[in-house]
Amino acid sequence: MRHFAKKSADPREVELKLQLPPGSRALIEASSAFAAVKGRRLHQLTTYFDTPERELDRDGLTLRIRRIGKKHIQTVKSRDSGQGIASDRAEWEWPIRKNVPELARLAETPRLAKAARAVSGRLKAVFVTDIRRTVRLLKLNDGTWIEAAIDEGQIEAGPSREPVCELELELKHGGIGAVYELAATLLELAPMWVSAESKPSRGWFLRTGRVAGVQVFAMPKLGRRTRAVDAFNAIIAAILGHLMANTGPMLRGDSEGLHQMRKALRAMRAALQLFANHLEREAPQRFNAQLLHFGRIFGAARDDDVLCLDTLPAAIAALPRGKIDKLLSVAEVRRRIPHAVAREAARGHDFTALVLGLAAWAQTGTAQPSSIGDDRMAARLGSLAPSLLDRVARKAKRRGRNPGGLSVEELHALRKSLKKLCCDVKFLGSLYRRRAVKAYCKRCNRVEVLLGTANDAVVAQRLASALVNDGDGQPNLAKPARALVQLSKRRRRRTLRGLVRAMRKFRAMPAFWS
Questions:
Q1: pLDDT tens, residue by residue, 48-107
Q2: Integer distance in angstroms from the first to the last C-alpha of the chain?
Q3: From its phi and psi, is residue 16 left (phi > 0), alpha (psi between -120 and 50) or beta?
Q4: Does some domain include residue 6?
Q5: Residues 328 and 428 occupy one common structural domain
Q6: What's the structural domain count of the chain?
Q7: Which domain holds residue 68?
Q8: pTM: predicted TM-score of the whole model, two decimal places
Q9: Local structure of 257: helix, strand or coil
Q10: Do residue 41 and residue 128 come from a single domain?
Q11: With CB atoms 3.0 to 4.6 Å apart as the test, which of 46, 350, 413, 474 could cross-link to 129 if both were Cys?
Q12: Are 291 and 428 contacting, i.e. CB atoms less than 8 angstroms apart?
C-alpha cells in the first residue's frame, strides 16, 4: 500500500507481524513456500534500554542491543508510521563490541543526535527478549523477496514473563502487496492474526502493567492534485493503521482500544461508501458485509462499556444512594461476555482475512486504477471531491428533515448518516479552508452528540431489561432496572428537545466544498 509519509533518506524496515497460536508453526513450515527453503536458526538475546522516565519511548524511539553468538548489534527504530497494517519505520544498526549502548554511534546520525545527548549517562536495561528465530529468504513468482522469520521464546521484565510465537514477513525487494497476499495464503493453512503490538510494547506492559496508549485516527494530508485512486488508498491505509494500532490494547482489555477499533470499522465503511459510485462493485459489497458483521460484534461490547462506564455511574450520582447500585455490579459481570466474543473475533480467521483482503485490494488499485474502479478514480481528487461530499450530505439532510417526528429507528439511521458524513469530511477536509471545515464539523458534531445521547438512553433501557429477564437474569433487579429506565426516558426527552434546533442550524449551514 502506498504510504504518504515524508520522503526520508533514513533506512526503512517494512514488515507484517502475525501472531501464531499453538500448532500453527508446523503448518506454516509445511507449506510449499516455506518447505522449499532451508531455514537458518539463530538464538537472539536482546536487551532494550531507556531512561527511568522512558524518554526514548516518549520520543518514538527504541534502543536495543542484540547478541547473536559472539556478535553484538545495536539498533535504533523509530515509531511505526501508522499507515497500513505493515509497520513502516526508520531503522539504524551498528555492530558494537559488548552489551553496552554506544551513544556516540547515535550522535553520528542527525535525527538521533539530540536524543543521544538527552539520555547520556542515564540509560538502563528495561526488559529482555530471549528468542529462537528461524529465518528464510523467500523469492516469490513476481520477483518479490521477503524475509520470513518465525520467533519463539519469551519477553522478560523483572519477574514477569510473556511467551512469544510470531511470524514476521519483512519486505526486502518488491511491493508490499505481495506480503499481504503471502499472509492471506498462509492464513488458509494455519490460524494466525495480524498484530501491530511490537515486542517493546509488550515489554513495557510487562514492566509497568500499563497498556500501550490507544491511537486516534490520523488522516494523511491530501492535495487537490492527488489522484483519486491514490487518495482512496491513503485513506484505506490510514484506517487500517488506526484499526491495527488499537488491536493490542483491546486484546489486553482496554475499553477505549475497543472503541477505537469500532470507530475504524465504521470509518472503513464510510470510505467505501464515499467512493462507491466509482469503485468496482463486487469487492466493496463483500467488504461492507464483513465490516457490518464485525461492527455489530464490537458494538455489542461497546454498548456494555457505555452502560458500565458512563450511564450507570451517572445514574448513581443522579438518584438517591442505593437506588440502582446493584445494577452496576451485575452489569460489570455480564460485560465480560461481549468483550470475550470481541477478542475471539479479532484473533479469528474471518477478521484477519478481512484486514489482509482490504490491504491487498487497495494495494493492487494503487498500481492499476482500472482494477479498483472507473476512470474518475484516475482524476484529480479536487475535481471529484465536491460530488462525493454532496451525495453523503444530501442523504443526511434528507433523513433529518423532520427530526421531531422520527422514530427510534429513523433517529438511529440519521445518526449513522451523520457519522459517515463526519468521517468523509475528515477524509477530504485538507482540500479546503480549515475555518470553513471546522465550522461545518462543529454543527454536524452537535447534532451527532445529541443523537448519541438519545441512543445511549435507548440502549440503557434495553440492557436494563436484559439484566432482569434474559437467561440467568435476576428478578430482584426489577426495581432498580425500572428506576434506570425511567431516568433514561427523561434523559432522552430532554436531549430530543434540543435536536430540532440543532438540526435546523446544521441544515442551514452552507456546504464548504461548493
A1: 999 999 999 999 999 999 999 999 999 999 988 777 898 888 999 999 999 999 999 999
A2: 31
A3: beta
A4: no
A5: no
A6: 3
A7: 12-210
A8: 0.91
A9: helix
A10: yes
A11: 46
A12: no
